[in-house]
Amino acid sequence: MPARPRTLSEFESKRRLAAAGVPTVPERLAATPEEAAAAAAALGFPVVVKLCGPAIAHKTERGLVRLDVPDAAAVRAAAAELLAAARAEDGPVDILVSAMVRGRRELIAGGTRDPTFGPCVMVGIGGIFAEALHDVVFRLAPLEPADAAEMLEDLEHPAWLDALRGEPPVDRARLAALLVALGDLMAADASIVSIDVNPLVVAGGEPIAVDALVEIATG
What we know:
Elements: E1 6-7, H1 10-20, E2 27-30, H2 33-43, E3 47-52, E4 65-69, H3 72-84, E5 94-99, E6 105-114, E7 118-125, H4 130-133, E8 136-140, H5 145-153, H6 172-188, E9 192-203, E10 206-209, E11 212-216
Antiparallel strand pairs: 1-11, 2-5, 3-4, 3-5, 6-7, 6-9, 7-8, 9-10, 9-11
Helix pairs in contact: 2-3, 5-6
């Protein structure tokens, strides 16, 4: 029986993506509420505070995310609450402190390793519209820049990337470069089973990964 894939923690997942050229939110890992407060002060308030560990995949559903935390005292309180909420099955956990990235539009992106076709890259419309629209596009990896640009045009709702309600258009060149980076990573590292970047927040027109999980093979 093949070994089950292992999911890296959010922090380790985003470190891999950042090293590959994927824009990720500035963040720091902390072991205690005091360390979390110091990390937040270094990043600048407000921040996002999360419980982080390899066994924690669905943080929002469990209430393990605190958004818009305004100051050091609130960070210490949030960190203490999150550490107290950890379960035995969560294994080792830390506090992840991230810069608060604001954007009204969200995308999803990632990669998967198809048993027939091999590594693939995906991009789509995310946020509250993801389940309603099911607007995603796949391509085989690695990608050329032209392939990535074509993926964006092949979305059913490409106008989602245009200027919208006073917000600038998504920087398509940066988004295409991000997809190329995902494809290069999937093609170069055969141990990666899947990459899930959700959400990919559009802030000032620039896409940035604020949450991500990478699954790797263990056998």
